[in-house]
Design a protein that fits this description.
The chain is an alpha/beta fold and about 425 residues long. It is built from eleven helices and 15 strands. This is von Willebrand factor type A.
Length: about 425
């Protein structure tokens, strides 16, 4: 027994270095700073209060996904005094991660496909509508934990079909916003879960209506202005999440898409994320032995069932036009993960604040943020005051000196002059 124990101890002892090395390598590779940065963006214009400058920064990786687990050591600032052509590279700054910052206000419309195919089961045996609603609940919980003022409108859509009234969209159905911490939102999802999907898919019309709704510049919720008519910063983030397991099955699909494309470009302040629910084109091609990824022609030739085809290409194109993310999910868990990804893309901003070196009122400056040697486009700003506020002690000393000077140079000579006038009168 003792011999077996010694042998076992020896094996464990000899394995520890290898295991430790493996765990170290795994942990190191999983560190966020090992991810490759693709873009760094200073969101909106810098906010300047006296000599303090505050930036909101987004970082994406090579897959165009948000990187929200970076550390302060991954960031550097480059501040330029434009008039004097002087660059400051050693600026000390305060830093907050996306989890620590209060997210900007956001208005999110979730377009939920209610076509008949959403009643079918996903790859894990859950009906797609159940999986989608479960994922949306998780999405709202995560948004609630983030804090801030995030408003969500869940909008079911679908054209009328056989024995189905459909789910028409208008301003009333779109304007169904609730804060993510409002119990009304969960009640609405409960009611939605009791419905049976039965409609036919029309992707472009609901999306167009949602874009036009959020694009109304006279709506102060989406575009708040101050008394002078200037935008109040931070401006709300506006986003649409399109969740569908189908495709736009109307006769003039190409023409409809071009119209949608132009509308999206015109309203480029609205980010559209798309989420396909089902098998990818590649998976459908393998399932039905097509020898290539499935496309519309395979549906038209009845080689792929219509209720299984999701237009992956169009979903990707829609998201790309707006700078959004397009993802594909085969089950409810993946849907929830991708919804969280969209939330991170919308609200996952780092906050950096610093004191302007040698500030001068009215002088133009610009700042760039560097993350792992990837540099953002510079953002210009001006300091609105002259220099930094002096400490209270210094200001009191200056006040006493001014009073002394006024006394010596003004009050005392005036008193002496008054006394001389009295003597002359007497």
């Amino acid at each position: 027994m003792m011999k077996k124990f010694i042998v076992l101890s020896t094996i464990i002892d000899s394995s520890i270095p290898k295991l430790s090395l493996s765990l170290l390598m795994l942990g190191t590779l999983s560190l966020p700073s090992w991810g490759q940065v693709k873009t760094v963006e200073v969101v909106r214009d810098p906010i300047v209060e006296k000599e303090e400058v505050t930036l909101r920064v987004k970082v994406t990786d090579t897959a165009d996904k948000p990187m929200i687990q970076l550390q302060d050591t991954d960031f550097n600032l480059e501040v330029v005094d434009i008039e004097n052509n002087k660059t400051y590279n050693d600026v000390t700054f305060n830093w907050k991660s996306p989890e620590e910052t209060i997210p900007p206000p956001a208005w999110i419309i979730v377009l939920l496909d209610m076509s008949g195919s959403m009643a079918k089961e996903d790859s894990r045996g859950t009906t797609k509508i159940e999986g989608a609603i479960k994922a949306i609940r998780e999405f709202t919980e995560i948004a609630k934990d983030r804090g801030g003022n995030t408003q969500v409108s869940i909008v079911p859509f679908g054209d009328p079909g056989k024995n189905c009234a459909g789910y028409p969209i208008d301003s009333n159905t779109l304007d169904n916003f609730s804060r993510v911490d409002d119990a009304k939102l969960q009640i609405f999802l409960d009611n939605l879960a009791s419905l049976s999907p039965c409609a036919s898919t029309n992707l472009y019309e609901p999306l167009s209506k949602a874009v036009r709704f959020l694009g109304k510049k006279n709506d102060s919720r989406f575009y708040p202005l101050d008394s002078s008519g200037n935008p109040i910063e931070p401006q709300p983030r506006l986003s649409i999440i399109l969740l569908s397991d189908g495709y736009h099955n109307k006769p003039n699909e190409a023409q409809d898409f071009q119209s949608l494309n132009q509308l999206l470009k015109k309203n480029n302040q609205i980010i559209v994320h798309t989420l396909g629910y089902g098998l990818t084109a590649q998976q459908l091609g393998q399932k039905y032995q097509l020898g290539e990824p499935a496309n519309r022609s395979h549906v038209n030739l009845k080689k792929v069932p219509e209720d299984e085809f999701v237009d992956e290409k169009r979903l990707q194109e829609i998201a790309k036009v707006t700078g959004g993310i397009s993802e594909f999910s085969g089950d409810a868990d993946a849907i929830a993960e991708n919804l969280q990804l969209f939330l991170n893309a919308l609200l996952g901003e780092y906050e950096i604040s610093y004191l302007q070196p040698n500030p001068d009122r009215g002088r133009p400056y610009q700042v760039s943020v560097l993350v792992q040697n990837i540099k953002s486009q510079p953002k210009k700003y001006r300091i609105t005051i002259f220099g930094r506020s002096l400490p209270l002690k210094v200001r009191l000393i200056m006040l006493l000196i001014i009073i002394f000077i006024l006394g010596v140079g003004g009050v005392i000579p005036f008193y002496i002059w008054g006394q001389q006038l009295k003597r002359q009168v007497t």
